């Protein structure tokens, strides 16, 4: 990484002695200044390769006696671009918005694929954001920029609205569309106790599933229900996922249904976790290459 940072006073009127300004940035005092940051990264690459997917970054901002304005932020990110603006005012809190264009999922992380994505992100935090417990509300709306062949995990649409507070993420609305599947519903995660919550429905080729409940280190309860109407279609789809190519070469036919519930948590290696399930597979058969058929 190479970069430069420039700070300069804005105007001749500066306080003769230090005086704090209002709001969470008040420690910067009743001063006015301009800032500019430029960064270049000649070794940009996917996260899973231990690199940053950002090739360059340029930011200009202005501070004025407790308020901050990020007038322009531009980055070359994963083969595309990100532009953003933001502001902080003691009376109104934080506001930020960004626009993404032609972001290549595979250049963000090697496990992702699909056509380039574009869209908008927005986040707000009230004036109380000076407190660590203040909420951050956000919305995300991304869509594929142009059609592409993709594979089973080609992301075509991602929409979410949620809140981060007390080290807890809540997503009352979540929609993920892959090339051939859709995941929708709500979810959440609390760092304290590693508690995950979900009310999600998955619709995939030949199958659909619903999961509702929560699970953490010490406790949890919930239900799941999965129906496979065409096991062959499902196996072919799963076989296009990374590391699952062998599944797509199996000869699977028929249908099946699985439903059940869980109790307790996954702490201690899951020793306390209790699963109850009922399976019905009246016509399901499975035969691998060179292996006898299993029904």
**Helix proportion range:** under 10%
Largest sheet, in brief, is: 16 strands, antiparallel
Gyration radius from CA atoms, angstroms: 25 Å
Kindly, what is the distance between the CA atoms of the first and last residues, rounded to a whole number of angstroms? 58 Å
In round numbers, the mean pLDDT is 87
Structural class: mainly beta
Q: Based on Cα principal axes, name the global outline.
A: elongated
Q: Secondary-structure element order, as H and E?
A: EEEEEEHEEEEEEEEHHEEEE
Report the strand count. 18
Number of helices: 3
Strand residue content:
over 45%
Strands ordered across the widest β-sheet: 1-2-3-4-5-6-7-8-9-10-11-12-13-14-16-17
Textual characterization of the structure:
There is one protein chain. The chain has about 300 residues and is mainly β. It has helices at about 105-110, 230-240, 245-250, and strands at about 1-10, 30-40, 55-65, 65-75, 80-90, 95-105, 115-125, 135-145, 155-165, 170-180, 180-190, 195-205, 205-215, 220-230, 250-255, 255-265, 275-280, 285. The strands form 2 sheets. Strands 1-2-3-4-5-6-7-8-9-10-11-12-13-14-16-17 form a 16-stranded antiparallel sheet. Residues about 290-295 have low confidence and may be disordered.
